[in-house]
Amino acid sequence: MKKTSISYKTLTFVLLFTLPLMAMTCDDDMIEIETFVYDESGIPNYAMLTTVTYETFNGSVVGKGWRQTDTMLINEQGQETSFQWSSDYDGPADLYFSRDSLFMFVYEKERNLLKASGYDYSQQKNLVQSPLVSYMQLLSVTEWQMKTVERIFRHGAMNIYVVNTYQPMTEHELNAHWLGFKAGED
After folding, report:
1. What is the pTM for the complete model shown?
2. Residues 6+ positions from 150 with CB-CB distance below 8 Å
3. Tens-place pLDDT, residues 120-129
4. How many Cβ atoms from other residues are within 10 Å of residue 156's Cβ?
5. Per DSSP, what are the bridge partners of residue 68?
């Protein structure tokens, strides 16, 4: 029997080019990271939540218009999955926080509606409490992005929660919202 030897350079070459290919073909479903854990009330809690201080909230959120750019459903396993708004419910909504009021620019089936109400911010769990939102928790806030967990509707006995991503509006976009949305109620 003849011995076949592979040189060190050949082996290195093969490994350098095949390992990245093997990693790229790895099935994404094989890697499951639970990012949310539901508590006894059925509210998803983010595993790595960090405090958004009053200073950060007032300096980065208040006084800006926030355009909703993405929505991900939080499934029963606590993972984010794709989500599409449908005509079954109102949404999405853009936001504006003044010092004491929350304004929602809601895209409804028949019209664009402006809703407003007071709000309180609690940095203990990053919660925005207002009659306009049944549940809103800030996950992260930067100058260019805000992420929230929101309850968008109830389906039977189950609350449906999503992660919404917002980006700051330009002054022109915000002015167009103020002009293009009619004040109203539910």
Report:
1. 0.76
2. 133, 135, 136, 137, 161, 162, 164
3. 999 999 999 9
4. 6
5. 166
What b-and-e string marks burial along 139-154, b requiring 16 or more CB atoms within 10 Å of the CB? Answer: bbbeeeebbbbbbbee
For the stretch 11-46, pLDDT in tens is 455 444 544 544 444 444 444 455 899 899 889 999
Task: Confirm if 181 and 93 have CB atoms less than 8 A apart.
Answer: no
Looking up tokens 């419910």 gives 89
Give the DSSP per-residue string, 54-71.
Answer: HHHIIIIITT-EEEEEEE
pLDDT digits (tens, 9 = 90+) for 74-98: 888 888 877 765 555 556 789 999 9
Report which of 174, 158, 172 is spatially closest to residue 65, judged by C-alpha positions: 174
* Sole residue written with tokens 């290195």: 12
d(Cα 126, Cα 82) in Å, to the nearest integer?
Answer: 24
DSSP character at residue 28: G
Q: What is the pLDDT of residues 110-152, one digit of tens each?
A: 778 899 999 999 999 999 999 999 899 999 999 999 999 998 8
